[in-house]
Write a structure and sequence with these properties.
The chain has helices spanning 6-14, 160-164, and strands spanning 54-59, 64-71, 90-93, 103-108, 132-137, 142-154, 170-182, 185-200. The protein has 202 residues and is mainly beta.
Length: 202
């Protein structure tokens, strides 16, 4: 189990994870899954950081430069998602490690925001292994990551253990909706996996 709240993990896993944008065992479709890249060796630069909440997330390959809000759990135990607003932002699940800490840090974002148009993670599925992601933290430190895999999964096959399960190094998970839209719901989730490659000082 990851170093963050075991209770929160179990509650989220048992409740379908993301309200309106999630699922619940790995079943990727080959046509929509990029092959894993060689995982960068963390080395000295990839050593874990102290806990500090993310305040900005940048993904140059898809034009993302967004403030980050903090997310918790809904009353039913599902993971909260960012509010639907014109000024769409990514959100960090505060019961997960912060970016750069050992374990999987989880950030969520919308693919669309209703009448406001595209969401902050609209192009998340265009990321490819090796693309860079940078999180600026509250204490002024930056954590740089490299994408290792991009997976599109049906919400009913959401890979809970792969996303929220324990890992022994700093990693990142970015999650949004994807696939065809059926009524008010997207069928799938897009999940980006990344590993810490470098940490900068204040």
């Amino acid at each position: 189990m990851s170093p963050y709240s075991r209770r929160a993990f179990l509650t989220a896993a048992g409740a379908g994870l993301l309200a309106g944008c999630a699922g619940g065992g790995p079943a990727d479709r080959a046509a929509s899954t990029t092959p894993p890249a060689p995982v960068p060796s963390p080395g000295r630069a990839g050593r874990p950081l102290e806990r500090s909440a993310p305040v900005v997330l940048r993904i140059p390959a898809i034009g993302v430069d967004t403030p980050v809000v903090r997310l918790g759990l809904e009353a039913d135990g599902s993971v909260e998602v960012p509010a639907v607003t014109a000024d769409d932002r990514a959100g960090w699940y505060r019961y997960s490690p912060t970016p750069g800490q050992r374990g999987p840090s989880v950030l969520l974002g919308h693919v669309t925001v209703g009448k406001y148009g595209d969401g902050v993670f609209r192009r998340l599925d265009r990321l490819r292994p090796g693309d860079g992601i940078t999180a600026r933290l509250e204490n002024g430190t930056t954590a740089e990551f490299a994408v290792t895999a991009v997976r599109t999964v049906g919400k009913k096959e959401f890979p809970t253990a792969d996303v929220y399960g324990n890992v022994n190094r700093p990693e990142l998970r970015l999650i949004t909706c994807g696939g065809p839209l059926t009524g008010d719901e997207y069928r799938d989730n897009v999940i980006v996996f990344a590993v810490l490659t470098r940490a900068g000082e204040r």
